[in-house]
Structure formats: structure tokens, C-alpha cells
Amino acid sequence: MEIIFCQVKNYLYFIIIFCLMAGSLSAKNRKKVPEIKADSCTALLPDSAGIIHHFPMILVGNALSFPDTVSIRLLTLVNDSLLNDTVEPTFGNKKELIDFFVRNIVYPHQLKDLNMEDDLHLLMKIDKDGVLTESEVLHAEIPEMKQEVLRVSKLLPALLLTDKTGRRINSTIHLPISFRILKL
């Protein structure tokens, strides 16, 4: 155990010394850098220091689902005990639903160049057979982002939503989606 501790300690000392040496050699601290003049054999590229890079990101929040009120009324009429056992519908895996949207949504190029960001809320109505019957985007300020979210929602495979007893039900899914630009 002591040998491993000494090796780790020596490794950390090496990293600290290396970082101190590399820091003193950074481009900002170099004093005598020869000036290069452009001619037919050289190409000058600007240094990326001080430049902000923009990376588009699609963030998808936790999917909330709830049974349609018509389904709840029908369950109440059929059997009162079923209503007590009914819980939020579940998909095979919420992560798969979120991953589907993250993989398929494309940040619109013209909006990416303008650093446009927006928060949207997608409501999807799913019938008992798992088919998307209606989708609506709420709180969309930018129409292009709204159209992109609606486009991807139409690609969604069948979602079989069930209650706690395993019965398929009509349901509505609420999915928050954010278009963000990460600036580094």
C-alpha cells in the first residue's frame, strides 16, 4: 500500500512540475517570437486564443405522461377499483424516448449562426395502439425550431403506454426541449 502511495505521490509531483513548465511556455508568455511574413510558400492562420467557439446543443427534459381524462372516466365507469390502481403511464424506458429526440433533432443552421436559443414544450397525444394522434408545441418563440420538433415527433415509433395493471391507455406526454448554444 505504501509503495502505491509513493508512486501516486511521485506521479502527482511530475504532473505539477510539467504544468508549471508548460504554463511558462504558453503563447501569451513567449517574448521573442520571430515575425513571419506571408509569401508564396507560407500561409498564416490566426491563433485561436481569445476566440469563442459555439457548439449547438439540444437538451431534452424529463418526459411526463398522464392518462387522458376520457380514459379515466371510462375506467371509473367500468370498475372503481381500477382507478385507484391507475398511475402515470410508462414507456419501456424514458431514457430511450429522450435519446430519440436528442439524436434526431437538428439545430437549424441559420439559427445556429445567429446564436438563437429557445425553450419549447412538446405535447403528444398517444392512442392505445401507441400511435401519435396529435402533437403540439407550446411556448415556441422561433417558428423554425417549432417545425423541427414537430418533424421529429412524426418520426417517433409506436409507444405502448400502460397503466399499473398493464392495460393500454390513451395518454398525453409532455416533453420540454431546449435549443442552446454552448460558448467556449
Can you offer a commentary on this structure?
With 184 residues, the protein is α+β, with helices and mostly antiparallel strands. It has one domain (54-183): TolA/TonB C-terminal domain (2-Layer Sandwich), CATH 3.30.2420.10. Helices cover 36% and strands 22% of the residues. The chain contains six helices and five strands, in the order H-E-E-H-H-H-H-E-E-H-E. It has helices spanning 2-24, 69-78, 80-85, 94-104, 109-113, 143-154, and strands at residues 54-60, 64-67, 118-126, 132-138, 171-183. Strands 1, 2, 3, 4 and 5 form a five-stranded antiparallel sheet that branches. A hairpin with a 5-residue loop joins strand 3 and strand 4 (132-138). The protein is flat, with a radius of gyration of 27 Å. Mean pLDDT is 73; it is low at 70-90.
Using brief descriptors, characterize the structure shown.
TolA/TonB C-terminal domain, 184 residues, alpha+beta, five-stranded antiparallel beta sheet
Note the topology:
Elements: H1 2-24, E1 54-60, E2 64-67, H2 69-78, H3 80-85, H4 94-104, H5 109-113, E3 118-126, E4 132-138, H6 143-154, E5 171-183
Antiparallel strand pairs: 1-5, 2-5, 3-4, 3-5
| Structural class determined from secondary elements | alpha+beta
CATH topology: TolA/TonB C-terminal domain
Number of H/I helices: 6
Percent range for helical residues? 25-40%
**Please, what is the average pLDDT?**
73
Q: Please tell me how large the radius of gyration is.
A: 27 Å
User: Could you name the CATH class?
Assistant: Alpha Beta
Order of helices and strands: HEEHHHHEEHE
Look at the structure and name the CATH superfamily: TonB
Shape: flat
Query: Approximately how much beta-strand content do the residues carry?
Result: 15-25%
Q: How far apart, in Å, are the first and last alpha carbons?
A: 41 Å
Parts with pLDDT < 50 across at least 5 consecutive residues: 70-90
Largest sheet: 5 strands, antiparallel
- CATH architectural category: 2-Layer Sandwich
- How many strands? 5
